[in-house]
């Protein structure tokens, strides 16, 4: 794992992290990986440990490579299944289930195209199984791939219903899964997890189930006020941590995060109008952007001009206002707006979008924007 990567410039950092794990376990690891100011945002030290463990997972997931060989992906599924059966840690089991779902999303995109003439029942059954498993990665990304399947098979009304569901799940206070360093979103993440449980559920989880813990903390000679303070203030960390621990990692991910949808190179689920975007690179698209894009495409094929234009406007405003659109996916998003403008006949606006997409930081620029812009150059008449 570390072969060829450790030298005098970074061995001190590694030794500190490994020492932290040896002396403090998971808490020691978190102390070395996350800044103190982020930990201070969390209400308690016990909540800090469990929540920052989530953020460590999100950080690792953000740098994970996407597999493109279906045989290797199936081997991964088998390996993950064996880990789930042998692992005792609840958190690690949750992580395994998450990666099982994520790998299922990749396999679904490596299957033969579902709209190919002669696609048989067995292939479609494989799609359904892997896409259903893929919905367990988060609130919406898996459902977007599911919607893409229905779109490429011409089931536009089903796609539209799924898009209504996806958009209803996207909320401005949810954390973008690759925005784990933002203090505001860390706080929103904690609050969203806490607020999903009703008062009765929180009481059952944090007070009734652990009433013996609280009672044992109260000395019989204390006054009423002292007993109240001891049972509520001194052990609030125990209570809050109990609330957090009742939810699985996947439940917390679905409740408090919004993750992009990932289309692998030459994905079988990418809409035909977007195939250029996955010709030689993985395409990451914010769920809000892809939802409005799919709505536009569906209405376009249904011949519903009024709703097509409204969807295009919704898409444009979503990107313009960067609503749940991280900077690293802005160029891709602007390019998608341009493609929709081009399909609607507004080639001047499409040209502007491609130009704007190319102005985003070089390492985050959508490669297809340059190709699409060059195709318009021949019959481009100006921006006036």
Q: Which strands sit side by side, in order, in the main sheet?
A: 1-2
What is the typical, i.e. mean, pLDDT? 79
Order of helices and strands: HHHHHHHHEHHHHHHEEEHHHHH
Q: Give the overall form.
A: globular
What's the CATH architecture name of the domain at 260-377?
A: Alpha Horseshoe
Q: Outline the biggest β-sheet.
A: 2 strands, parallel
Number of helices: 19
Strand fraction equals: under 5%
Separation, N- and C-terminal Cα atoms: 57 Å
Rg, alpha carbons: 24 Å
Query: What structural class is derived from the secondary structure elements?
Result: mainly alpha
Contiguous runs where pLDDT drops below 50 for at least 5 residues: 37-45, 198-219, 228-243
Number of beta strands: 4
> What name does the CATH topology of the domain at 260-377 carry?
Serine Threonine Protein Phosphatase 5, Tetratricopeptide repeat
Portion in helices: 55-70%
TPR repeats: 331-364
Keywords: TPR repeat
Provide structural commentary:
This protein has 384 residues and is an all-alpha fold. Among the domains are: 1-33, no CATH class; 260-377, Alpha Horseshoe (Serine Threonine Protein Phosphatase 5, Tetratricopeptide repeat). It contains 19 helices and 4 strands. It has helices at residues 11-33, 36-39, 45-62, 70-86, 90-110, 121-134, 141-152, 156-169, 183-195, 199-208, 211-217, 224-232, 236-245, 249-256, 287-302, 305-320, 330-343, 347-358, 367-377, and strands spanning 175-176, 257-258, 261-263, 283-285. A two-stranded parallel sheet has the order 1-2. The chain has a two-stranded antiparallel sheet with strand order 3-4. α4 runs antiparallel to α5 (90-110), α5 packs antiparallel against α6 and α10 crosses α13 (236-245). It is globular. The termini are far apart. The relative contact order is 0.09. Residues 37-45, 198-219 and 228-243 have low confidence and may be disordered.
């Amino acid at each position: 794992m570390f072969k060829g990567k450790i030298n005098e410039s970074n061995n001190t950092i590694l030794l500190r992290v490994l020492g932290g794990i040896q002396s403090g376990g998971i808490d020691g690891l978190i102390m070395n990986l996350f800044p103190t100011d982020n930990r201070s945002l969390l209400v308690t030290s016990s909540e800090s440990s469990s929540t920052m463990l989530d953020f460590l997972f999100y950080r690792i997931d953000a740098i994970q490579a996407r597999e493109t060989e279906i045989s290797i992906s199936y081997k991964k599924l088998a390996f993950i299944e064996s880990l789930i059966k042998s692992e005792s840690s609840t958190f690690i089991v949750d992580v395994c289930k998450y990666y099982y779902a994520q790998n299922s999303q990749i396999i679904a995109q490596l299957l033969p195209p579902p709209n190919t003439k002669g696609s048989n029942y067995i292939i479609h059954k494989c799609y359904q199984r892997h896409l259903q498993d893929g919905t367990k990665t988060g609130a919406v990304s898996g459902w977007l791939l599911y919607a893409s399947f229905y779109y490429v098979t011409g089931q536009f009304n089903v796609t539209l219903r799924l898009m209504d569901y996806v958009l209803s799940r996207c909320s401005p206070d949810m954390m973008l899964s690759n925005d784990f360093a933002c203090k505001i979103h860390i706080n929103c993440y904690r609050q969203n997890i806490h607020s999903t449980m009703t008062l009765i559920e929180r009481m059952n989880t944090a007070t009734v189930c652990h009433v013996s813990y609280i009672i044992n903390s109260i000395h019989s000679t204390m006054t009423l006020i002292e007993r109240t303070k001891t049972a509520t203030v001194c052990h609030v960390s125990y209570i809050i941590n109990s609330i957090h621990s009742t939810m699985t990692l996947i439940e917390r991910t679905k409740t408090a995060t919004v993750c992009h949808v990932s289309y692998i190179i030459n994905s079988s689920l990418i809409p035909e109008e977007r195939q250029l975007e996955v010709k030689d690179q993985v395409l990451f698209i914010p769920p809000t952007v892809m939802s409005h894009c799919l709505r536009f495409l569906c209405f376009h094929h249904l011949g519903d001009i009024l709703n097509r234009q409204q969807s295009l406007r919704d898409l444009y405003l979503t990107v313009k206002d960067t609503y749940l659109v991280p900077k690293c996916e802005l160029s891709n998003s602007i390019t998608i707006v341009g493609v929709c403008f081009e399909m609607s006949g507004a080639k001047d606006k499409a040209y502007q979008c491609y130009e704007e997409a190319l102005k985003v930081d070089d390492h985050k620029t959508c490669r297809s924007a340059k190709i699409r812009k060059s195709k318009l150059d021949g019959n481009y008449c100006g921006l006036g």
